């Protein structure tokens, strides 16, 4: 298959037509068809289907559309709609991303099969997007908090060179894409309809912007309308394309939870962003963390850290900004605390208050004075608070 | 030591005086003194200290206060302030709770030692509080969200019979106590000053209410003022008394994080409540979950579940409320989805749209009709959406 360049133009065109036909002749994920194509190659599979010589499960998957579909016509329709067709025979196919899906199909995991071809609107090539891609997904009916956080992650990941993959839906998806766009980074939307269909309708402009800076991709042929079950089917491509999936707000039962399950199934890390426990929008994220399915993340740096095997760890820097009094030994801190509690104090008084021997208190006071934490006055010792 | 009842009144009084003396003569946690008392008994230890025959480390701990402290006077002061003294020799001592602290002292863990005695304001006896106690702690400068959640946990835990243990501070502590009080449950405050001292001053009424429905407890003798280091020292008693510690809002570096560390050190589960990642108040909680130190919890039921070894699990009920269409088989769902996407449709149209064989579509439509998900009209099939 690496020999694409050495093929004649006619052979290439035949392969493109075959894949276009196969992308439309069965409803994805068509597992029998995907296996048959993997065994026979695209042209061989088409030939067998047209002659009705394919195995029964394949014939069942293609029965309804076999006579209505034409690869040639689809390629023309795609071209007219500004779509390019990417196929596994070409060297620019994102093989790694989808080989796990083929593996999952072989393992008979439900609803798992690699895409037969990808219809692409936009400049970027799928393969160049998968190299450093992170999926950011979540609820459509997101809160302001969720959208803010999704945009932050989209912006942050894009800013450090990751492609942000999502589903172009309202809510979290849209915010993640917008965050990536605002950082001038690359972002990819996988649709549950044709890549030429503006869905949701209110995201027409967003989809055009995504195509400009990345790609709008679908395994459905041009013009395919969205259907409810197609969203779940599409989710597997988002999960497969991301090296990790970040879930920002998800209800107890949601498409985002479905994407997370698939990522998990494919062995990709799932990361979940927490939120207020009073918000129904975060119930799914918290449940994923509690069950151990997801790692809790709060910032882009934590995602990057998790994806950087050698882990130069910018996230460790957080925490604990030190205070000057941190360097004090326990006895010195006790005396300093006692001094801070009073206007001024003498040595004996401090010794009693701290429960330290008088000699020790004297020694500590000298240290505190040298270090600038206490000073001697006419009425006794006084703390210098830093 | 179980023989308290068989002791003469004089012996009991001597023991009480000895413990009162020991509770004041060194600044807790006085590890050398605690070990010496564990070996010699309270009266033996006092005798040795007064004669200066104790080991050097003990003499260092007690040097500054030895001559100023009187057990008899302290007992009178406690009585005048309405405090009772609880000591390990009495059968109502909460031994289990503090035996881990003694163990930690033996293991030379820093700042770990069991309390030598407890001064108690209020009705409840420490032992009856420890049986089912949960610590709820968190930031003083809490957010409205944090206080709301702390009150919910306080109320919920108290409502199912747990004693809510905290530190009476502003913010999370106060909200947790108030939540417990509002459920009519028992709550215990450990102070970093004498149990008779109203600290923080603005919580005077709250402390009286806690004493009425539970107890205000301190290892510091009556009248001891609060000092900064005493809060950290006090935290170990909160951690030890709770069978688990719930952290609601904590900064990256905070007293609550310190209590959580101690609970962890003592082998008690640490539970952390998440919050918005945009809030500095939740940074500590998220860090604990990320590091694996804490389990994420969102509701009282999850805390109860974790503390109920046999786990009748009310928390599993959450999630996934089912929808009627959930029962549909994949093919039926596909057809139903397709029907929902159009005004009405004929069999062939549906077959093409779904990519299913015509015969299968016909069979599925009959099932959908029987189940009330679709109906036949003059213009074709129509979905009935549930």
Order of helices and strands of chain A: HHHHHEHEHEHEHEHEHEHEHEHHHHEE
How many angstroms separate the termini of chain A?
69 Å
- As residue ranges, the low-confidence spans of chain A are 311-321
Structural class computed from helices and strand pairing of chain A: alpha/beta
The second-level CATH architecture of the domain at 117-317 in chain A is 3-Layer(aba) Sandwich
Give a description of the structure.
The structure is a homodimer of 386-residue chains. With 386 residues, chain A is of the alpha/beta class. Chain A has 17 helices and eleven strands. The first copy, chain A, has helices at residues 9-25, 31-40, 42-50, 56-62, 71-80, 95-106, 126-130, 144-159, 172-182, 204-213, 228-241, 255-265, 283-291, 300-307, 330-340, 347-354, 358-370; strands at 83-86, 118-121, 133-138, 163-166, 187-190, 215-218, 245-248, 270-273, 294-296, 374-377, 380-383. In chain A, helix 1 (9-25) packs across helix 5 (71-80) and helix 9 crosses helix 10. Residues 311-321 of chain A have low confidence and may be disordered. Chains A and B meet through helix 4, helix 8, helix 11, helix 13 and helix 15 of A and helix 4, helix 8, helix 11, helix 13 and strand 9 of B.
